[in-house]
Amino acid sequence: MSATPAVGRPRAFDEEAVLDRAAEVFWRHGYDGASLSALTSAMGINRPSLYSTFGSKEQLFRRAFARYHEEKLADTRAALDRPTAYAAVRAYLCVSADGLTAGNQPPGCLSIQGGLACAPGNAGISDVLAAGRAGTEAALEERLARAVREGDLPEDTDISGLARFVMALSEGHAVHAAAGASREELQASIDMAMRAVPLRP
Amino acid sequence: MSATPAVGRPRAFDEEAVLDRAAEVFWRHGYDGASLSALTSAMGINRPSLYSTFGSKEQLFRRAFARYHEEKLADTRAALDRPTAYAAVRAYLCVSADGLTAGNQPPGCLSIQGGLACAPGNAGISDVLAAGRAGTEAALEERLARAVREGDLPEDTDISGLARFVMALSEGHAVHAAAGASREELQASIDMAMRAVPLRP
DNA sequence: CACCATGTGTACCGAGCGGTAGACTGGGCC
DNA sequence: GGCCCAGTCTACCGCTCGGTACACATGGTG
Description:
Oligomer: homodimer
Structural class of chain A: mainly alpha
CATH architecture of the domain at 65-196 in chain A: Orthogonal Bundle
Mean pLDDT of chain A: 95
Order of helices and strands of chain A: HHHHHHHHH
Largest interface: A-B, 54 and 54 residues
Distance between the termini of chain A: 50 Å
Number of helices of chain A: 9
Strand content of chain A: under 5%
CATH superfamily of the domain at 65-196 in chain A: Tetracycline Repressor, domain 2
Radius of gyration of chain A: 19 Å
Number of strands of chain A: 0
Low-confidence stretches of chain A: none
């Protein structure tokens, strides 16, 4: 599907580039609100090309989201790679807030705007988004577990509770960003939140 | 529209009761994902009754959401009516988490599942939801301002930042609840968050 | 008890949905 | 340079969408 075959007319578009355009439409309008016409028009290709390449609207979404999520997860892992849990959490929240308010993409987060609640036939969309968010939360929790091992957080820290807290906060920031909150407004919320992380630097 | 006229065939349903059923459908499937067939079937009335009573799908949503939001806002105000900011914030987060995981209604929150991102023609839906959330955040901030006046919070507290932090957290909890998080899991996150509120009880 | 304003039920509207058939296009390979 | 085959294009499919026309049911009022 993705490898260019030796024979035949070559594809006139870059698969990953059009996935990014598709992600943007899903991001702005949600899965149910993103029509095939809006998608093909944003992607610059027409329906048969879309269907022969991606198979269906749902598979297109899964591909677009997977690409989006891998990129975000890489950013998250990079942010978490700080010497202390405090610095790691702060970096994660800041990087997240930056992404939520970056000017070159829709405000907020595809994992949430994509379809927290979907039409009855599209429940799988909500599931794949929830799985993505759970993956990010797991990365957070893993970093906190490491901090406990390293003596950077107290032995009795509820790391899954703390990871859930940090994740929930960044999800809430996504909701705020989708409604127009600025980077500075999110930063004020982060400053408050950082009081909650045990062991200041 | 709402007052029963003296003459003519009487209405066979209770207007506010069917609004609650409608809210549940919007809540589960979002505005775009809630079809008129699903709505009428859940409400137990048929299309012409719905249209003569409420006017359109969008007006139905606005009425259903207004009812939902007024009720939640009353709960919020009641929870915030505690002697200290600490107790008020904690009560708000707990009442919120209870509502997000109550068994007799869909998990999560209509203000968020209803339509963070909508089809291009339905942008007004996202706006009315955002306005509702902003109203809740304003109630929080007002309570914190009172706490500063009463000397319960330090003079230099960033009350809007703190209100935004608390609101964002409860929005994140809504996202978690929509994905199946339990009341206990949200409670662990609340316990973490409460470290961030200045002046313990 | 006939009237009549209103609510309810069926059956339908045009539009747009997600998805596809089939003719045409164009570049690598012998 | 002619063949081949994947990609692209136009035009269309059946279906469901949000919304409505119109005939019938209902019950208080004179």
